[in-house]
Amino acid sequence: MVHSADTVKPTWTLGNRNLFSISVGNLLPGRAKLLVFFMLKVSGNGSTNSRAPLAAGSLARFERKVPPRRYQPAVLALLLLAFTVSCDRTHRSQTGTTGQNSFRTVTISNSQPRRDVAGEIVDAHDGCLQFFQGRFYLYGTAYGNTDGYGVTNCYRVYSSPDLERWTREGELLKDRPEGIYYRPYVVFNPHTRKYVLWYNWYSNRKQWNGRAGVAVSDTPVGPFTVVNPDVKVPGADSFIGDGSLFVDNDGTGYFIYTIIGKGYWVCVERLTPDYLGVTGETSEVLATGCEAPLLFRRKDLYCVLTDAMCPSCPQGSGAQVLTSSGPLGPYHVRANINRQPGSGAPIVPAQETWVATIPTPDGPVFVWMADRWQSAPDGIKGHDFQFWAPLEFSPEGDILPLKAITQWSLSLTQ
Fold first, then answer.
1. Do 181 and 154 touch, CB atoms closer than 8 A?
2. What percent of the chain has pLDDT over 90?
3. Residue (of 220, 47, 48) closest to 138 by Cα position
4. Is the pLDDT of residue 314 over 70?
5. Which of 332, 340, 261, 271 has the alpha carbon at shortest distance from 302?
């Protein structure tokens, strides 16, 4: 940025006294919000008998009136002040605080395994992707080289500044009851300033007695402390299956989940202000025989996605859309965005887990995330691929059918 200086123009004021006025409001950077206005009233013998410095909130001009024989030092001092402030502004520009954002284009691949900075394949499935304090966090279940039905499952989190460079941050729950764990979902509570984790777990594989647990942490990477391993959401006596979290614009939290013993009903429950319990305010039954439900909001429309059960199935499942003007409904059935017309086969052979909201210079991008079970070339479950793709919307706000894309790009604010 180039700053221009006003031309020095001698003026004559105060009768027989030859004086000049210099206005340098444009000489100093506009960000230097300081108005300094000096008036020097000079006596006949040249001595200063009064001085009145004034200050205000922004620098509009700097005016000094002195006899012509003394104007040279004043001009030099004034130019030195302007140069000093200008140099200071240049320094701030070099450190990236000019107020102008820079952008970076990142590429998302669905055909190559996602790796961390150590070169290891990211092992985080059936979880969520969040953006906290300028950084992305990927939460998921780590399966390693197992069938996914053992007590070795654990919750893991990775972080990234740009969705490309991933750092393994560690495990979320250090001390937990022995069991089989799935589907970790983490949100930030603006009321308590805590990070809250809800998860699904089973203490007995034979009974498949699903429960909803909740834990909290002061940081997005944990460790999370279990607060309640068995939250009594409505239907808990019939065992809880898959579930995920949603936080509305006003900070209210919701839990969308399935009830195993009721034929895998899908319901939405409003949470307490601390997100550690439920209020008893529940939606109607939105679907039956379904898994992997999720809830998100775009503008003033609430969208639920869920579909038929797909336990580790390689063919994938659909993504039935339901919409409402409120998080608790009533909901209306819309299209299935992951079913091919006619055959009904999944467009993308994957089971959904989350819709991430990614901030970009052009507004939020909603990214559909799904697990491609049994897709790893080496057969290791922990190496199964995840499919990420941006959702597209019609002018009326309907979600358009998914596309089986192998690679795509988006711009992120640096």
1. yes
2. 72
3. 220
4. yes
5. 332
CATH of region 104-413: 2.115.10.20
Going from N- to C-terminal start, the domains of the chain cover: 9-94, 104-413
Long-range contacts, stretch 247-250, CB < 8 angstroms, 24+ apart: 247/187, 247/188, 247/189, 248/297, 248/327, 249/297
| Region at 90 (left for phi over 0; alpha for psi -120 to 50; beta for the rest) | alpha
* Alpha carbon distance 12, 309 (integer Å): 89
Write out the two tokens for 109.
Answer: 């691949």
Cα–Cα distance between 305 and 296 in angstroms, integer? 9
pLDDT digits (tens, 9 = 90+) for 216-269: 999 999 999 999 999 999 999 999 999 999 999 999 999 999 999 999 999 999
Q: Which of 106, 166, 137, 160 is CA-nearest to residue 410?
A: 106
Q: Which residue from 326, 199, 323, 185 is spatially nearest to 250, judged by alpha carbons?
A: 326
State the pLDDT at residue 102.
Answer: 81
Task: Give the closest residue to 343 by CA, choosing from 371, 368, 315.
Answer: 315
Mean predicted lDDT score pLDDT of the chain: 82
**What's the pTM?**
0.76
Q: Rounded CA gap, 294 and 46, in Å? A: 81
Measured between its terminal Cα atoms, the distance across the chain in Å is 21
332: its two tokens: 């209306």
Extract the tokens encoding 108: 């998302």
For the beta carbon of residue 414, count every other beta carbon within 10 angstroms: 11
**Overall size of the chain counted in residues:** 414
Of the two residues 65 and 362, the one the predictor is more confident about is 362
Tokens of 283: 């939606």
- Across the range 47-74, mean pLDDT stands at 40
Mean pLDDT for the stretch of residues 56-69: 38
* Residue 287 DSSP symbol: B
Residue 1 tokens, joined: 């940025």
